[in-house]
Amino acid sequence: MRKLIAFDDxxxxxxxxxxxxxxxxxxxxxxxxxxxxxxxxxIPIDLKDALRKSARLAAQPDKKNKSAKTPRxxxx
Length: 76
Hints:
The protein is elongated and about 75 Å long. With 76 residues, it is mainly alpha-helical. It is built from 4 helices and no strands.
């Protein structure tokens, strides 16, 4: 899917140069940047990542039940 993103000339020139310096493409830079952004916010990038996250959540004990305390009876 193609979408347009606007950059000012200076930023675009720096990104093109970075891509050249890394012997890659602008698309590779964009893919890496968006993957990092999704990871930062805990959003799975692909099916493999989603399954890994799901398995990790299923393996964790339910924290809600652990921290719930039974109310103490007060003396009258």
